[in-house]
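Q: Hi! Curious about what Cardiolipin synthase A looks like structurally. Here's the sequence.
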Amino acid sequence: MDNLYQAATLLSLVGYWVLVAGVSLRIALKRRPFGVSLAWLLLIYIIPLFGVVCYLLFGELNIGKKRTSRAEAMFEPYADWFQELADQHRRSVPQMGQHARPIHGLCLNRTGIPSLVGNHMELLHQGDVIFDRLVADIDAAQHSVALEFYIWSPGGRADEVAQALIRAAGRGVKVQVLLDAAGSRSFFNSGWPDTLAEAGIEVVEALAVSPLRMFFRRLDLRQHRKIVVIDNQIGYTGSMNLADSRMFKQDAGVGQWVDVLVRFTGPAVPVLRAIQSWDWEVETGERHLPEVPKFDTLAHEPHGEDALQVIPSGPGLPDNVIQKVLLLSIYHARTSLTLCSPYFVPSEHLMDALKTAAQRGVTVNLIVPDKNDSMMVEWASRSFFSELLRSGVNIYRFKGGLLHTKSLLIDDDHCLIGTVNMDIRSLKLNGEITLAVDDEELCAHLTEVHRDYLDQSYALQLDEWRERPLRHKLAEQFFYMFAPLL
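A: Let's find out. The predicted structure is below.
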């Protein structure tokens, strides 16, 4: 019997070693950024079995067999659609500004999506104004309304959007709603899905969470895009979820969420619809690609030189595009950069870019919330502040609520606005969308919005920051080790 116990113990030890060594070797061979690999290895060696299970569940990009096969079948028709779009709009390249051209070249070569001129853009930053415009546009819809959100939180003015969708469906408008299963859990647990379905509205869960399939698909991948397309002529995207900030997460102790959306018309709207169509087809197998917009914009027309680049990222799309666009924008800045991010846990490349910009004389302003709804992200974020402050980056903590805006303003004449947080999850994993905007009027408006944010913020001072309690420094360093996984 003793020999049996000894043999079982030996086999257990060997099995344990093989498991840990095998997963560690797989992590090393994946050729991720060094910090990501190190964080996973630390987790596995500090809490071995827990770390191995976490890696098997969340360590690799796996959207499931059915979605993968659909995405593979979609590559060719979507590539043809974007190729026709690029061919149609090749003449617009000379009209682009100095910031827009390199981003256009990068995105065209990596995603096949060109930057398009002839768009009219508006920056909306007040919740009531956004809901007013959205409801009015839906009420005027004649053919189709497509919505895609990470969060739909029932209550308040979000219910007015639901009622507008019901009215639109009653007029014969085709309405499609795609919502992330985890982010919109409160919506799916309410009576709204049945109510919308009874009105003839298609409601689909994106990346439905099923514990039974946890080892067959990564459960923490999220569809984080925010998209509204009406009649293939009006588009909305930005940081705001379909939630009334006066009612959303009021028990979190962070105040009201502060967001922006961009409303635009022009040839970039069908591109936004094509991206929403991609997400819809991955989930349902149904294709709703719009017609390719024709190039009919002349330089002398209003907004003829306002370039707009739509940049999607996430599973099934070329890797790391948005991070490359961010780096390109930061390194091209000549005078100023203002970055807003609610969840600031940057990659090593982005940290180097921000520090280098400040060290070469660019005024770099970073605006982050003073209170965050994620404890881990808050502590990890703080771990970067000392290094940035020493490099000359100005850091402002916003006290007017949870600043949820995700924007980068470059030299006051070019900007990036979208759904992307400055963390690895947004840059590498989630389905995201960003607009690269070359529009003087919109950038001037964003400058005013940033000034308003700064008026509600306080600046961190390096000398004072160094005096924070030791327990805070220890907590920051602990979460810094796992920052690449947040």
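A: A fun detail: The radius of gyration is 23 Å.
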